[in-house]
Amino acid sequence: MKKIAIITGGGSGIGLAMAEKFVTASIHTIIVGRDKQKLFEAAQSLGSYCEIMVCDLTDLSVIPELVDDIFRKHGRIDILVNNAGINLKKEFTEVSDAEFQQILLTNVTAAFSLSREVVKAMLTNNKPGCIINISSMASQYGLPKVIAYTASKAAIEGMTRAMAVELSPQGIRVNCIAPGFIATNMSAKALNNDPERKQKVMSRTPMGYLGNPADIGDAALFLTSDAAQYITGVVLPVDGGNSIGF
Ligand code: NDP
């Protein structure tokens, strides 16, 4: 049976790389984001196994309808990847409450809300499925100037474990990938104007180079596959050794 996947933020960077791996494995993949043009261009490159849904996930009220539309159209949802995320690099004392809340809303609350709706749909499948959350090195060790992002990614890892214990008995595996420093627009913004930070990143990455979005795509495809059928509740660093680097 054809598997149906949702990847939030699937129009660019890591999300797009995961979508590439999924469609290559004949998984029908729905990519979600705010920028219609970006999604449209991604879909053109991904081919007929890809479908787009334009949605600002911070508008939580539209999430049940989004999931309902997908479920009614396809009759099942097998995979959810909570990948959409935003970052904010600022001194601790400069971060406003509104900025902090916006990061938490995008990176955590929207992922919770979407997961809740998708789980309701998944539970109607004969084989319920799996969820992958996307964390970051920001929750593996202390990184300066990303307070809200760090809080959001620590929350995602905690949620992964809480979801895994509650949902695995019902057949839904929940795992998390913690990407290291991966070459995308997001990391370029964080590193390119900050040579000291870039040097620090490279010096503690034993493999000595930034990761490729496709590295995360491969890990995600593995976690969705039957080869990972006994894996749930893990946070898998895909980081060239950055999280254990000296
Ligand atoms: P990108 O900025 O390329 O991707 C982020 C995606 O999230 C975009 O496609 C964007 O789509 C989508 N998005 C953001 N806000 C919303 C929203 N409100 N509603 C719907 N979609 C939204 O960055 P990356 O690919 O680098 O990041 C992907 C994930 O990987 C993030 O969770 C990030 O924290 C994580 N990560 C990245 C690392 C890296 O080194 N690059 C390292 C560790 C973690 P649109 O603009 O269309 O809304």
Automatic annotation (TrEMBL):
Pfam families: adh_short_C2 (PF13561). One of its GO terms (molecular function) is oxidoreductase activity, acting on the CH-OH group of donors, NAD or NADP as acceptor. InterPro entries: Sc_DH/Rdtase_CS, SDR_fam. Belongs to the short-chain dehydrogenases/reductases (SDR) family. This is SDR family oxidoreductase.
